[in-house]
Amino acid sequence: MARGMALAIPLLAIWLGGALVGCRTLSRRAPCDDNIIAARELTQKGLEALQRGRWLEAEIKLVRAIEAWPMDPQTHQYYAEALWHRGARERAIAEMEQAVRLSGADATRTAQLGEMHLANGDITASLAACDEALRADRTSGRSWKLRGDILVRQEDLQGALDAYHHSLSCDDAAPEIRMEIAELYRHRGDPRRALSTLQRLADFYDLDEKPWRIDELEGLAYQALDRHDEAVEHFEAAAARGEPSGALLLAMAKSQLALGHWEHARYSAEQARERQPELAAAADRVLGQMAVARSQPQAGVHR
Predict the structure, then answer these.
(1) Would the CA dihedral through 79, 91, 31, 28 be positive or negative?
(2) Cα separations (Å) of 69 from 24, 33, 42, 185, 220?
(3) d(Cα 178, Cα 165) in Å, to the nearest integer?
């Protein structure tokens, strides 16, 4: 009996020791779980602040979330976005790099990092991120769009057009890509394709929600096709949706001049010069052409 008790006591001590270690382990895990829950709540609040445009509030919430649990890539991503909006671009890029590492080089986050590098003027870093994103997922429409944006910066318009079409094949419901494609067709001197692309793009929007830039680009395409009535119609629609730029007003003046709408052309040219003084020389040329055209009514309009 005494020997049995002697054996039992050490065994009991071992069991109790193991139980105590387990308790300590559990006691360490519980605060960790609490930290994760707190971090998720703070991250959600930070996201809500981001969506409302409250960048400083978002930053404060997200810093606290990272302090509570630094291993969530989404928190670092949102923090990077808050910093970016606050103008702290280098810190934002560092946080986005951390988000990419923690996510295992997720294609979407890697592409977003590449977009930040490109916006910051670092084409080499942007291209490296783009390549990494495409290695992770060749069907990432965002990554192909980034490739197109990079190629535009490198003045490879055909390569950019191919990349944008590839992006569109991955994500057909991406209106911003169609806008880029239309811009490229316009710069390449292909207004018919630009117009066709813009008309398909317009189908994504209700009439009262259509972005003014689509109408402006449609106006430019019609103008290049010498369809000035339709050009003026779209320029006016674009101007009615917001504060028109000097460039838009100058383009409208040119089509109004082509139609012989002298007073409208004069007003648009003068407004263009007032809005953007750097367009003064171009506006003066339109006004000069108008003066010549009005002095020779039988000779037609000189463009």
Answers:
(1) positive
(2) 20, 10, 10, 48, 52
(3) 9
Side chain identity, residue 224: A
Tell me 213's DSSP state. H
Separation CA 93–CA 83 (nearest Å) = 9
Q: Please compute, for residue 218, the number of CA atoms within 13 A of its CA located in the half-sphere on the CB side.
A: 23
C-beta of residue 145 within 8 angstroms of C-beta of residue 170: no
pTM value?
A: 0.78
Helix (H, G, I), strand (E, B) or coil at 4: helix
Average pLDDT across the chain, whole number: 88
How confident is the model over 248-302, as pLDDT tens digits?
Answer: 999 999 999 999 999 999 999 999 999 999 999 999 999 999 999 888 765 444 4
Q: Which two tokens mark 137?
A: 């997922």
Q: How far apart are CA 51 and CA 65, in angstroms?
A: 17
CB-side neighbour CA atoms (13 Å) of 280: 3
Query: Using CA atoms, how far apart are residues 53 and 172, in angstroms rounded to an integer?
Result: 29
